[in-house]
Amino acid sequence: MASADNELKIYLLSDEDWNRIQEVESLMECFQTATLAMSEANHPTLCQTIPIYNYLLDIIEDFIDQKKPSEDVVIAANNAKEKLLRYYPTSDGLVYIISTILDPKNKMEYYHENGFDDYIEIYKKQITELWKKDYMPAQITINPPNTSNVLVNHIYKKRKFVQSDEFDNYLNSPPANIETNNMLLYWKINLYLLTIYQFLTI
């Protein structure tokens, strides 16, 4: 239609224009994937915030480095990257860090596997301090049995009674092999981690 109308011909897309549209379309697919993932209502999504930001940044960087798009598309891709970095959850956004670590699929392993080695100890310190300050159950001193029984005293005199820290135990255990939409089921099954589960409500 446009090609038959002299006044509309100026709006016809050239082959170069179509090529650029295809370039942009291939880049936009990652944003569609991220949007759909964050729009699902059948499982928690806050814990996916940092992983999804990193996914988008990785895709944009690979797109620029490997696909060698047109200069104006590169500019657009870099602008998108700068916008993502502007809103990227930092150590100031502790809630995002906590939610990522309290995702039983991630724990601290996510940060180990994705090049955050310089920040791991900082993150761990921040979340541990918050845990101990506001959520950790009060320590209960457990003393060995006080008895005059010689045999019992002998048995218990060298035994150490140590109350374990639920959060340390959680971090030191390997990540759970579960599907994203089964995360709430994981916490229901592992009710012994009830205090940590309550930590999720921050």
Automatic annotation (TrEMBL):
Protein name: hAT-like transposase RNase-H fold domain-containing protein
Originating species: Rhizophagus irregularis
Matching SUPFAM superfamilies: Ribonuclease H-like
Stored PANTHER family: BED FINGER-RELATED (PTHR23272), ZINC FINGER BED DOMAIN-CONTAINING PROTEIN RICESLEEPER 1-LIKE (PTHR23272:SF161)
Phylogenetic classification of the source organism: Eukaryota, Fungi, Fungi incertae sedis, Mucoromycota, Glomeromycotina
